[in-house]
Write a structure and sequence with these properties.
The protein has three domains: 127 residues, Periplasmic binding protein-like II (D-Maltodextrin-Binding Protein, domain 2); 112 residues, Periplasmic binding protein-like II (D-Maltodextrin-Binding Protein, domain 2), CATH 3.40.190.10; 226 residues, Dipeptide-binding Protein, domain 3. The chain has 17 helices and 23 strands.
Length: 544
Amino acid sequence: MKKKLLYTCLAGVMSAAVLAGCGKAPASSTQAATSNKAEESQDAGQPKDAKEELVFVNYRDIRDLNPHLYAGEMYAQEMLYDTLVSITKDGYAPCLAESWTISEDGKTYTFKIRKGVTFSDGEVCDANAIKANFDAIIENKDRHTWLEMMNLLVGVSAPDAETFVIELSKPYYPMLTELGVTRPFAMISPKAMKDGSTKEGVNAYVGTGAYVLKESVTDEYAIFEANETYWGETPKVKKITVKVIPDNQTRILALEKGEIDLIFGKNMIDADAVNKYKDGSKFTVSLSAPTSTRQIVLNTTNDILKDKAVRQAILHATNRQAISDGVFYGLEAPADTLFSESTPYCKIGLKPYAFDVEKAGQMLDEAGWVMGGNNIREKDGKAMKLSLLYNSDSVTEKTISEYLQSEYGKIGISLEIKGEEEQSYRDNMKAGHFDMVFNICWGTPYDPQSSLSAMRQPVYGDYAAQQGLEDKKEIDEAITEILVSTDEAKRQELYRHVLTRLHEDAVYLPLTYECNKAISSLSLKGVGFTQTQYEVPFGQMYFE
């Protein structure tokens, strides 16, 4: 292994990461019990057919697969449900809608619904079924206000069984993207709804997708089988068994033993495993292009961080290359900006905050934060003490936190690191109860529009963190204008303005650009990635 820039600093925490793995999630039982249960579930099923059954693994249960809510595993929802349109590398493609037209003013979308499609329970999937789904989603509108479309929606209608119409109060350029992502605009059988509603749950998980859910045992396994009435190309893999294995190292051991065929996902495989197998001949390792940005959000309402010069100094004091090399073996490239330049509208020539400890110290001196006792900076009798909140279920975030605590301490910043379980961490982030907090941007295909749109309201930590910005109102207004702009050149200029303001305001500390990862058995072919980072493209996989 080549020497890493921060090897000495990270030696202890990296060894912990190797042992624990970076994708660990909370388990409802012990590691051994979970592993044994998963093995028992495989033994209890039908014998594995190397050509028709794929054994997949996830760190947690499939959970609630109601396509109109947000609790379930997205890869499983992708297997069961379809949307009106699909998002491909070449743009939008027909799905349940064979075609569509957009009015000249950009406010009316008319979809021609594909004929002959049925839900797996036999219910016809026509325009009336599509409208029933939209009615259910609209009934729970407050849950979906992160989608600007919901704020612009005038109404939906089904003039006939083959025609579905959406009317907006203003044009909205991300419209087709939001209709094509996994949720909430995926279609479930009206028979599965509870009195025409999905707000309080559904009676069954019934869609028009390539697979149907045949069996599941909470926190143990789920079995999916090919949908015999699927309208599209029949998948070559007829049966998919998903084992629940929370622990990273246990997943790797299961792959080594041949008990599973595929590990897939940004946080399902640690960098050590990828580095170990990427040049070997035992498994196939696949890596995607950048999908999202791993970042730390700085709360501008904090008494210390309200000073832009302090925030900028922290960015200069952060060695992103060292984090990329030392934690991710270079698999996640250092992030210079909030969004990678490969993200639409984001190649605008922003100047990165170069790693420069001397400059960081000078900026803190000039801001009045001078070195005091115990090598901690002080200003007006106040010590420079900050806290960094992270998800305790993420070994990666803990590793980075410990590194930053050490590095910032060298320039007089006392950093307390606080790990909390996922729900508590998210609640505190949303409420703004943090000085600094780990987060990721929404990623493909949501960026940049959805990440920016959500900054205008308390969806994640962005809204609270930006409240101390003098130009917050101006930024929000520009984001709103972006979403309804029909002029491509003007939209690009607005993006340039917003992204430049956020960059110069130093609200975000970009760390690395995440990529999707997969390790699979050599006999499994067709493993790749789609435009939607949460989809596992089982439909294109086959055994050889």
